[in-house]
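Bit of a strange request maybe. I'm writing a small parser for structure token strings and I need a real example to test against, not something I typed by hand. Could someone generate the tokens for this chain?
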Amino acid sequence: MPYTSASSFEDLNLSPEVLNGLYVETGFKKPSKVQAITLPMILTPPHNGSGKTTCFVLGMLSWVDPNVKAPQPLCICPTKELAIQNMEVLQKTGKYTGINAECVVLTERTSSTSIQSRAPKL
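Reply from user aminoacidic:
Good idea to test on real output. This should exercise your parser:
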């Protein structure tokens, strides 16, 4: 998909199920200006070296408030390699910000419980 703006959600090659969710459940009629410009870029197939990770990390860094002493952005990656790549870019671009970051990688599969079926701990 080339980097162009989208005048409709159909221009984005979204599945019929996603389109149905957009129109029926959210009430969207057409992409907002921000969506029309950014979604074609976000939905572009991942080409190595295109700068997507840097864009993602800059988005996270720009919203961190160093005065808030609590975890702020949370980045969940589908692979260990992508988690490490995000962390490396974050360390370089955030070097002079005073922001601390951690990378936690699951090393072994364990049994899992659906988040919805777990009661919150109070």
